[in-house]
Amino acid sequence: RSAEHIRIVEVGPRDGLQNEKQSIPLQTKIELIEKLAQTGLQTIEAGSFVSPKWVPQMANSTEILEYLLKTPPKSSSPITYQFLVPNARGLDNFLTTYESFGASSKQDAYPTPPPSPGNGRGSALNTSQNLNTMSSDSGADAIGSQRGSTSTPDIELSIFTAATESFTQKNTNCSIAESLKRFEPIMSRAKSMDLKVRAYISVALGCPYEGPNVDPHKVASLAVNLLEMGADEISVADTTGMGTAPKTAELLKVLSAAGIEKGDLALHFHDTYGQALVNSVVALEHGIRTFDAAVGGLGGCPFSPGATGNVATEDLVHLIHSLGAKTGVDIEKLAEVGDWISGQLGRRNESSAGKATLAR
Ligand code: HMG
Ligand code: MG
Predict the structure, then answer these.
(1) Whose CA is nearest to atom 14 of ligand 1?
(2) Where is the composition biased (Polar residues) (predicted)?
């Protein structure tokens, strides 16, 4: 049997750049996306239609969307680009550009996940065994073959809320309930246009304002709510990096007990405490097959003080390959992109695997 495919959502151009203080030229952002498109990544979060007063760095997301629609970057397989929208105003802004290019998004970027490995044995050491014994036939690697090449790339939207009231207020100036209300018109308009919608739940494993013990049942009930509203995927986010292996395991157990399918989940780890890879292994053990990451370990959320970047995509790819699974990503090319963008930003390259790959 061929190795199983793990889907990676590269969030570097959005989560990775949004917190940079210096203004990053549009050309650099576009070059980053173009370089990432050549690494084998199939999903790239490219920008964010949020208020420029709140997050100035994302102000030129319209130009990025326009660029992607006009001149889709070259890639060996089709790429899906995702954009954050916080409210109806953000959706309007997005649609103005999207519709002016007559774009449509009808392809299935969220394939049916492979059957659960049934890891009842509970060993933390049988990850590669689980990964290798799973069929890849219905995995994400089938996306490319299901989709023909299109003249315009697939575009998807992401909405975002959080598991605590304080974080939701700080990040989006509303309560959790109000955030869900805001999503209703976004969801119905997106659905009417065949646009897929991913939903983030922030601070699922720790909150900068309410502390490390966030109620996993709150995360689960929000996830159920968002799926019922029509979300195509839930990205459960450890915004602060406070997640640990036992907390991750507990959260996944609670999500599962709430009836949430593993195939509906992605995990989004920030690496502030250096636990992102350990937590990823726990999630893989639980059958999660989609992970968010940022090249070079870029990133952070402006409304989560002290939080550092996402898990570096190079590190995650190295981990997944070491377990005998595949990502479709060329780690050498990716390592070069991580090093290049770190240099552009005057940042240290935060990816251990990236630096080691380049030093070989
Ligand atoms: P608000 O100030 O309450 O909004 O912000 P408002 O409706 O009162 O509008 C105020 C002004 O902003 C008005 O302009 C609106 O037109 C404008 P004015 O009349 O003053 O000139 N406005 C907009 N402009 C452009 N695009 C828009 C928009 N909306 C209003 N979409 C709002 C509410 C949600 C807009 C604001 O709080 C916001 O933009 N928040 C986004 C914060 C953000 O981007 N955070 C980072 C992304 S989430 C994240 O990083 C976490 C994640 O990675 C997962 C994880 O790790 O946890 C996804
Ligand atoms: Mg994030």
Answers:
(1) 51
(2) 124-138
